[in-house]
Amino acid sequence: MSAIYQRARPIRWDDIVGQEHVKDVLKAALEQGRVGHAYLFSGPRGVGKTTTARLIAMTANCTGPLPKPCGECESCLSVRAGSHPDVMEIDAASNNSVDDVRDLREKVGLAAMRGGKKIYILDEAHMMSRAAFNALLKTLEEPPGHVIFILATTEPEKIIPTVLSRCQHYRFRRLTPEEISGKLAGLAQREGADADADALALLGRLADGAMRDGESLLERMLAAGTAVTRAGVEAALGLPPGERVRGIAAALVTGDAGAAFSGAATLYRDGFAARTVVDGLVSALAEALHAELGIGGTRLPGADIPRLLNLQAALDGQDARFARSADQQSLELALTHALLAADRAGPAGAVPGDMAARVARLERDLAALRGAPATPGHSPAPIPPAQVRTAPDPPAPVSGDLTPAPRRPAPTAAEWADVVRRLDIQMRAFLKPAHVHLEAGLVRLTFDARSTFQARLIAEKFDRLGLAVAQAFGPVRLELDAGDLSRTGTFGQDRPPAPPEPARQPAPPRPPAAPPAPPTQPPRPLDVAPFQPNRTSAPRRPQGAALIDPPEPITQEPTWDDLPGGTSSSPKRSAPERPSPAPTPRPAPAMDAQNHPNFQEITSRFPGRIRDAGVKRSAAPTAEEDHSSDEDT
């Protein structure tokens, strides 16, 4: 026996629930014979993508009377049974390779066995590989005239653009709870079962827009063989009873903490998880909010929109607590935070309760400072500028009741969530195992022995945490209770005023400077030669001229012995005695061969001729050597 969602699959276009924007267009195109060669159906699960693809196959191959598909001919029955030879449903998740596409291309060219259209339905088409899409691209662009491709997917963004551009894309939407519950009512009546409207509405809401999920839930309820009621649906699906949840929600709205705690404890003892109870409360508050906004739902007595919004936000922010622990105490703490958040909220535009008292006290203080009685109900007149004193005078005695300003109310979980949002992701993780205690002007973080690692890291970043807490709560005292790692600090306080600078004392007069001592010896006059106008001076060298005249170009090797000073190998010659030179001009010193200014240029032009500096490679033969050579010859 097939499942109820298979038996309830539509066989005609009019049987499709919702999706009018898709079925009307396709139905008109098929009636006019304007059938596309490739379609792409995208949308959530269970909204009718595969059903619509089968209706196209039935309409294209129907042999029965109009309107098509008739649902009774042999072709329509074969398509419904999945045995039609020309309608092939391919699971693209398991047939996603190039070889699978190559096999499909070989079969595409064959004619239809029954003379109609060949329909290829590729389910979960986004699972195909990119290579497989590219292999199918040419066939998808220009298929034979008797072939229709239908691609169905839940993730159209994974389809490559070249395939999207060759298909007619239709997007399927989620179905509303009313549409789902309406079809479920018809299915229950067809099955001969009694079903309450509240139960069917709950099933439609739990289906989350998917018709197939709603039909599966209905089949689960019909399996018991009893009437389908709301209580039966809640018991079968493990949901807390709606009436008891709405009672707890009403207690939260009215601020009755005792009724809220007792009701939640009863549900917890009955086996319902803390997170499940909180989720039910959020749903009940959402229905009440919809009722206040006029868009349906069930009202709660004494509820207003700001209070409902604060309750919902406070309960929704308890996921982190349930991630650490989901016991009864965590459930009660979640309700406590919700009650505090609701009490902190007032009607839109309302003034806090202590604001009027604070304004009246400020008026009395100002009147006492001015020396005039305060008129109740009227604001004091402004002080004229002429009465404003510029010099600091001692304060006048103040009369009246000067009570200290009320302390800032204790921060709530919503404000602590604001502190957590100001921190980086690393510090958020370190704060998860901490137990947070909030009071007026005090925040205490407690770590147990199992969280020593997180406590040590929080202690290292204690100042950063304190700045974040002060930004959210104002002046506050932060305490870290973690055994040896405990720390305490106050953050957000104004800096104390700087002490007044002491008056500057006049500097003592300097003593008169002593007169300078007389010089012991008179200054020695400079010896300057007298000016001689007729003396001729040497002509000046023009600016930029070289101090040494450039040497003449050398074209042959010089005779080294002719140089003044000779070579290093020649015997030293005694220099003739010369008369003492005149003081001006001074003669140039004797020069050796290697000190000649052109020595480097000569050795570079005549390589191998000089072995050492100023020494020839082959010396001139002496007289004895010439004589011995003559005897040999």
UniProtKB/TrEMBL annotation:
InterPro entries per UniProt: AAA+_ATPase, ClpA/B, DNA_pol_III_sug/sutau_N, DNA_Rep/Repair_Clamp_Loader, HLD_clamp_pol_III_gamma_tau, P-loop_NTPase
Entry's Gene Ontology BP terms: DNA-templated DNA replication
Main enzyme class: transferase
SUPFAM superfamilies recorded: P-loop containing nucleoside triphosphate hydrolases (SSF52540)
Domain AAA+ ATPase, first and last residues per copy: 35-182
Domain of life: Bacteria
Disordered, as annotated region: 371-411, 485-633
UniProt cross-references to Pfam families, sorted A to Z: DNA_pol3_delta2 (PF13177), DNAX_ATPase_lid (PF22608)
Listed name of the protein: DNA polymerase III subunit gamma/tau
Entries under PANTHER family matching the protein: PROTEIN STICHEL-LIKE 2 (PTHR11669:SF0), REPLICATION FACTOR C / DNA POLYMERASE III GAMMA-TAU SUBUNIT (PTHR11669)
GO cellular component terms given for this protein: DNA polymerase III complex
Keywords carried by this UniProt record: ATP-binding, DNA replication, DNA-directed DNA polymerase, Metal-binding, Nucleotide-binding, Nucleotidyltransferase, Transferase, Zinc
Catalytic activity, reaction form: DNA(n) + a 2'-deoxyribonucleoside 5'-triphosphate = DNA(n+1) + diphosphate
Transmembrane segments: none
CDD domains on file: AAA (cd00009)
Signal peptide: none
Family: Belongs to the DnaX/STICHEL family.
Subunit structure: DNA polymerase III contains a core (composed of alpha, epsilon and theta chains) that associates with a tau subunit. This core dimerizes to form the POLIII' complex. PolIII' associates with the gamma complex (composed of gamma, delta, delta', psi and chi chains) and with the beta chain to form the complete DNA polymerase III complex.
Gene3D superfamilies attached to this UniProt entry: 1.10.8.60, P-loop containing nucleotide triphosphate hydrolases
Coiled-coil regions, chain positions: none
An example molecular function term from Gene Ontology annotations: metal ion binding
Biased composition (Pro residues): 496-525, 578-588
Enzyme Commission code(s) on record: 2.7.7.7
Function of the molecule: DNA polymerase III is a complex, multichain enzyme responsible for most of the replicative synthesis in bacteria. This DNA polymerase also exhibits 3' to 5' exonuclease activity.
